[in-house]
Amino acid sequence: MKYDNNIPYKIYLEEDQMPAGWYNVRADMKNKPAPLLNPGTGQPMGFEDLRPVFCDELIRQELDNDTAFIPIPQEIREFYRMYRPSPLVRAYCLEELLNTPAKIDYKFEGNNTSGSHKLNSAIAQAYYAKQQGLRGVTTETGAGQWGTALSMACSYFGLDCKVFMVKCSYEQKPFRREVIRTYGASITPSPSDTTNVGRAILARNPNTTGSLGCAISEAVEVATTTPGYRYVLGSVLNQVLLHQSIIGLETKAALDLYGITPDIIIGCAGGGSNLGGLIAPFMGEKLRGEKDYRFIAVEPASCPSLTRGVYAYDFCDTGMVCPLAKMYTLGSGFIPSANHAGGLRYHGMSSTLSQLYHDGYMEARSYEQTKVFEAAVQFARIEGILPAPESSHAIRAAIDEALRCKQTGEEKTIVFGLTGTGYFDLVAYQKYNDGQMTDRIPTDEELQASISRLPKIPG
Amino acid sequence: MKYDNNIPYKIYLEEDQMPAGWYNVRADMKNKPAPLLNPGTGQPMGFEDLRPVFCDELIRQELDNDTAFIPIPQEIREFYRMYRPSPLVRAYCLEELLNTPAKIDYKFEGNNTSGSHKLNSAIAQAYYAKQQGLRGVTTETGAGQWGTALSMACSYFGLDCKVFMVKCSYEQKPFRREVIRTYGASITPSPSDTTNVGRAILARNPNTTGSLGCAISEAVEVATTTPGYRYVLGSVLNQVLLHQSIIGLETKAALDLYGITPDIIIGCAGGGSNLGGLIAPFMGEKLRGEKDYRFIAVEPASCPSLTRGVYAYDFCDTGMVCPLAKMYTLGSGFIPSANHAGGLRYHGMSSTLSQLYHDGYMEARSYEQTKVFEAAVQFARIEGILPAPESSHAIRAAIDEALRCKQTGEEKTIVFGLTGTGYFDLVAYQKYNDGQMTDRIPTDEELQASISRLPKIPG
Questions:
Q1: Which of A135, A151, A192, B5 has the fewest CB atoms within 10 Å, counting from its CB?
Q2: Interface list for B 358-397 with A (CB within 8 A)
Q3: ∠ at Cα A312 (A307, A313), nearest 5°?
Q4: Residue A97: its pLDDT value, please?
Q5: Residue B224: CA atoms inside 13 Å, Cβ hemisphere, count?
């Protein structure tokens, strides 16, 4: 095997090389992400408007477009030490298999029980909820990674945790439920008859398999109607991208140790938490004009918010109880087909990433599920890690870029985010192994119909 | 949190600190493990006798009681780099929860897709099979960790792999099957009607839930009757303990870096591969009279080979097609209750460990399943890792030893092997979470009946 003895197979930072703060990419954006709007008045939502829903300190982080460096509290750094740093792995075996001159590195976030990067923000959000003296938090989960992460974080700090899980994931992943229960959280399939918004969604569409947008509506309703509770979210929000910047900061520190500058940085994108976190410090350099990188967001063809959506204000949730966010969206009523990358089944995209994409700082592409699983199995067999379906979107794009390098002979360095493991996605792998995997790409007419129902901004 | 800033939370060895060879503890044993015997003649089995079953180089390792250091081939070291070194983790949070003066470290082998330490020997055995020009290998698996590991290793080297999975695990763990299939191996529930020995076992006991002993018989039959195939085994054998010494060597190297000498070293014990590997270099020091350590083997009360078995020659398998090994055994006909620590449901114990135990170099204890899961959930919630049921036996014992230190005020250092994760054991966690977990401890009469059927040695 070709093997560069000067660069370790896996780079683990030492404890004293770990980031002491998160990086807030908004501080370096000329065009800031558009503010959240009150759907009733059309006015930007401030601290007081958001307090019924979110924890105080998290609102401050949400609204802070100026502070570049935000120190990570000691208690969170202690928790991070339990499963971080995550390794930056050189995909030597994959390179050899593809016979490409490209160098491929992946930042592997799956080596913790939640199975993904979601724990990075879960522990931060649970910490601030605990600091505020709350009893508990509510949330939604798609693939189940965020729900698992939050249940772990809440168990660590002794907080109650109520999880609404997208129904199709709940049914496909019985063992996810059990991990979440083991960590002491309650879990309800969404849409459910336990909330007003859930009952309304079920009345309109009794056979719905659910979506992240529905589950968010239910979790917000419970948080705002139960004393001592707030709602927390695993993606989309500015605060989440802030916490997830730990991924990019560690990646950059590891690359810097060996003088490596990536050419292309790739991440899967559902709500944008992983991609936003991975690219943050690199994007900062690009925004400040210090360096240039290509950034590629990869989404499922069944839920193509960046590649086929519109950039407009929309509800963050299906039930239209949340604020309006300006983002690339397919319409909050869009229900993607029940494909298996549950974590990517969201109708919109982080406002921060949407603005950066709109301003031309990054690219996007989409893949059909079968092509994604081809890459997943190829990767699993040669790199030894069974990847999550979400993460496998990034693998697909990284392989395609590496094959392009093979054609052109370019020795590019490709970094991608391997956000998690597929140990709870075996129903999807089974369908793929049995040749029964399908995908459903929305037609133009379907998307137009959904997008035509975007809310009008009052005032 | 109390936190010693001089000692990292997790110790990862650098690549140049990784062991270059395995350590063969037999070289330092005065009383060597008793040889395998031919059940027909009662004579020790030599290289030629074992060739129909095992790969040549693995037989050499099996029979070599003298060479202490055996270099690890370059190809295996390259594969090890994909998931090793495994971290040695200081259980600061668990210590704080228990309020114990003891220091607890665990060597975590679960951060790879097979989910356990089994990959350490799987890749070695697949490598030697490939070197010999074989077409494929057969094996058995209990919990599924070994089967997964072997399928990964065979996929890496392009070998065919046929796995017989203990029926109760096969049914409890449908997703294990799918991982194994994803790596391209075939998988058959055991006992099956695809082999003579499987059909005979089913005829005698149609409702059997299977055992490792049954599955071994079937895998050996297929290996010895299919051209170009050999049988490989994930535990019990000397060669496996040799490969698994990588665990102990890394552990010792990490501790030595910080001048730490453990007082107690704890591992779960089914066939003995993890325990034997973890303690190997420490046991070497004890055998050579250089240092003293307490070693504790932990087994399930439902399958208590060390604590309630006899030290005698017995078949390694239920179908009595394998050689005779001298070991602590419950009788090769013993079928343990279908408890969930599938990897510990073996009637016997490694000959090497049996000899060491017989000679007073280590201790053993057993726990009921419910007590084990109590420890598992406590550990998961505070240390963030959902442990395998097998590994949780070691956690239980480590917690009990730490609580004993709390009573006595002793500041002992306890090291235990956290062999794997429980991501495919959620049926067991569900039973525990629902308060429906049971255990069945064999009565003295049952054990006596089973042990009374031990084979007579001819000659």
A1: B5
A2: 377, 380-386
A3: 135
A4: 95
A5: 17
User: In which band, very low, low, confident or very high, does the pLDDT at A128 lie, cut at 50, 70 and 90?
Assistant: very high
Nearest CA among A395, A392, A302 for reference residue A347: A302
| Mean pLDDT within B88-100 | 96
Instruction: Please give, rounded to a whole number of angstroms, the shortest distance from the CA of A262 to a CA of chain B.
Output: 21
Tokens of B97: 């929860």
* In B51-207, beta strands by DSSP E: 69-71, 88-90, 103-108, 136-141, 160-166, 186-190
* Residues 144-163, chain B, touching A (beta carbon < 8 A): 152, 155-156
Q: Which domains does chain A have, with CATH numbers?
A: 50-74+117-231 (3.40.50.1100), 88-114+238-451 (3.40.50.1100)
d(CA B373, CA B429): 8
Task: Determine the 3-state secondary structure of B152 from DSSP.
Answer: helix
Distance CA A354, CA A360 (A): 10
- Owner of token pair 């940085």: A265
Q: Which residue has the tokens 């290996």?
A: B223
Give A354-398 pLDDT, tens digit per residue: 999 999 999 999 999 999 999 999 999 999 999 999 999 999 999
Selected residues 391-450 of chain B with any CB under 8 Å from a CB in chain A = 421, 423-424, 426-427, 429-430, 433
A170-211 residue pLDDT tens: 887 888 999 999 999 999 999 999 999 999 999 999 999 888
Distance between CA atoms of residues A10 and A237, nearest Å: 31
Statement: the pTM of the whole predicted model exceeds 0.90: yes
**Could you tell me which chain A residue has the CA closest to the CA of B382?**
A156
Residue B140 forms beta bridges with which residues? B164
Q: Is B300 left (phi over 0), alpha (psi -120 to 50) or beta?
A: beta
The answer to which of A300-304, A454-458, B61-65 has the lowest mean pLDDT is: A454-458
Q: Indicate the residue type of A12.
A: Y
**Helix or strand holding residue A82 (H, E):** helix A74-83
B12: burial class by Cβ within 10 Å (0-12, 13-18, 19+)? buried
Which single residue is written with the structure tokens 């963050």?
A: A316
Whether residues A381 and B429 touch (CB distance < 8 A) is answered with: no
Asked whether the predicted pLDDT for residue A4 surpasses 80, the reply is no
A96 near B CB under 8 A: no
Provide the phi-psi class of A300: left if phi over 0, else alpha when psi is between -120 and 50, else beta.
beta
List, in order, residues 6 or more apart from A58 with CB less than 8 Å away.
A125, A128, A232, A239
Structural contact between residues A235 and A146, judged by C-beta atoms closer than 8 angstroms: yes
Distance CA A287, CA A30 (A): 8
The lowest-confidence range among A173-182, A227-236, A317-326, B178-187 is A317-326
Residue reference for tokens 């936003």: A276
CB of A162 closer than 8 Å to CB of A188:
yes
- Beta strand B103-108 pairing with B136-141: unpaired
Q: Is the pLDDT of residue B459 over 80?
A: no
DSSP code of residue A34: P
Is residue B373 a contact partner of residue B437, using CB atoms and an 8 Å limit? yes
Chain position carrying tokens 């709500």: A271
Cite the DSSP H helix spans in A91-195: 92-98, 119-131, 145-157, 167-172, 174-182
Contacts of B155 in chain A (CB under 8 A): 381
ipTM of the prediction: 0.93
- Decide if B307 contacts B365 (C-beta within 8 A): yes
Answer whether B62's CB lies under 8 Å from B54's CB. yes
Integer Cα distance of B139 and B161 in angstroms? 8
Give the pair of three-digit tokens for residue A189.
């399939």
Tens digits of residue pLDDT in B183-205: 999 999 999 999 999 999 999 99
Q: Give the residue from B368, B361, B372, B207 showing the smallest Cα distance to B288.
A: B361
Distance CA A45, CA A313 (A): 14
